[in-house]
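Quiz preparation item.
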């Protein structure tokens, strides 16, 4: 039987940081809608400031640091990828289109053959 490891926020400080980040997000949404009469510029400024503060608070928490590490590791892996040249990509695209065309032709011929066999030969409906 497989066991699943569930990671939870460990310390009380991390829980408080995550709760603070969520509270800042909610504060930004509430401020956005409460300031509807004050103009769009102020609304968006409050929303973006609250979002930036929530991201900053999340970034200093342990889950935020793990997410940053994951992002760094992912970027290192992306740098290791050997990307195809433009010519190779064009050739592979042409191969895919040719294969799709051949398969479409095959399926159409199979459909028409089965239609002819069933309706004309077996059932005699035409």
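Solution:
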């Amino acid at each position: 039987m497989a066991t699943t490891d569930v990671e939870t926020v460990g310390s009380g400080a991390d829980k408080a940081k995550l709760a603070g980040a969520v509270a800042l997000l909610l504060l930004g949404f509430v401020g956005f809608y409460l300031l509807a009469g004050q103009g769009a510029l102020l609304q968006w400024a409050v929303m973006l400031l609250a979002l930036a503060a929530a991201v900053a608070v999340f970034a200093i928490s342990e889950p935020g640091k793990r997410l940053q590490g994951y992002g760094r590791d992912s970027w290192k892996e992306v740098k290791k990828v050997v990307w195809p040249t433009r010519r190779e990509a064009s050739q592979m695209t042409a191969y895919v289109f040719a294969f799709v065309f051949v398969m479409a032709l095959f399926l159409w011929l199979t459909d028409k053959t089965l239609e002819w066999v069933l309706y004309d030969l077996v059932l005699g409906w035409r």
